[in-house]
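[Meeting: bench + compute handoff]

Bench side (C.D.) handed over the final construct sequence. Compute side (W.E.) agreed to return the predicted structure before the next meeting so the bench team could plan truncations. Sequence as handed over:
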Amino acid sequence: MNARAEAGERSANAPPAPTFSPLYRQIKALLLSRLQAGEWRPGEAIPSEVELAARLKVSQGTVRKAVDELAQENHLVRRQGKGTFVATHAEERTQYRFLRLMPDDDGAAGRLWRRLLECRRVRVGAEVARALGLRVGDAAVQIRRLLLTPGEPAQPVVLDEIWLPGALFKGLSAEKLANWRGPMYGLFESEFDVRMVRAEERLRAVAAGADEAPLLGVAEGAPLLLVERLSYTYGQRPVELRRGLYRTEQFHYRNELT
């Protein structure tokens, strides 16, 4: 074997070189781990940048850059003159950030109303188990609900089917959901200590089936938008699988790309 081939073999078998991480990214990861551990609760203020810099023995600028990224990712919220707080789904600016359905008339006011159809504990099949990192047969909470336009007559716009890991949502019931007045993610956060921090979605066009058409007030075979969402909490842990069927005659799905 010649020297070049030998060197190539050594290179192929060598362990990968360590990846360099800027200091502010290391501080960001440390702050995120503390959020995950519950050191600062949703809605609570975190220490000031000066205090964090002193604790972590880094510059204030490094802390500010880490906090800036966490705020951009909706983990934290800056409030002018008050400080930086752990983001919460009860916050006006974040509570509906995962719902991207907008009326075609941008001036149309009012949020969508909720009507709970079902909340029950089930044993998951292979597909739901795979998505949520469970085993087939594990317990889950299954929720079905409608989102409707406000006013009378209310028009159904979204039919949601939601699965949650049963171990994380013990005690979640139809009564608790019906009595909750804020966003559902706010309930998950305050009652079950589960915060949705990011989500992945897939969209495709489908036809309304015989079961969902009457609930949505459309004819069987009518076009609908299917939005499949997998939501994660800290540590990239999947904690919600949601499939929403959307009517889009007077609504559109809006996303902002940056």
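W.E. noted at the follow-up: The two ends are 51 Å apart (CA to CA). C.D. will use this when planning the next construct.
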